[in-house]
Amino acid sequence: MVTIRGAQPEPYCPYFRHAVELIGRRWTGAILRALQADVCHFSALVGVIPGLSDRMLSERLRELEAEGLVERHVIPEMPVRVEYGLTAKGRALGEVFAAISAWAAAWHDDAP
Amino acid sequence: MVTIRGAQPEPYCPYFRHAVELIGRRWTGAILRALQADVCHFSALVGVIPGLSDRMLSERLRELEAEGLVERHVIPEMPVRVEYGLTAKGRALGEVFAAISAWAAAWHDDAP
Q1: Is CATH 3.90.480.10 the right assignment for the domain spanning B13-106?
Q2: Can you tell me the ipTM of this complex?
Q3: E-strand stretches of chain A
């Protein structure tokens, strides 16, 4: 039997919930967006995101590495350089971020 | 001057950050998804989202009303019934949630 309700999502999905709470954790969405825009050095990330501390950035980058969204590249020069970038899984968030940006641009003025 | 970088988002956007941290707050994404699927009674929302307490649901619904995403309808029957639903601003998150669902479905097996 085909119903209109068939087009709706399941009311609850654990994968959805994990994903939305992962990208929405404090600072995390902002960090992922900056990485998407090719900001790849630790100090540049701190500089670009207002209020972000070194400690919080370290913590979030470790979480995002553990989730497979971010990878850390050590460039063996003197002095050693470290760069961060999105993995394929992290880059695949591009459509999510574009949808959030479009929604925020359309509706932010309506916020109380 | 046109450059490839022109196609990328700004590294930081306060509206984006507010939006992603709003929908990603603990329980909030799950509540909005259930409302999107027409779960509209308080007790049904508690029943559908594993681990959600009455107290947390009340708090999140108040936050979402304040943000203009959710509205509360009091139906003057005896006993009085209360229903919750998405506003136009809340319903406009449909594309965001579809993108997150698609990403979660494609990538959750790769999570550690």
Answers
A1: no
A2: 0.89
A3: 70-75, 81-86
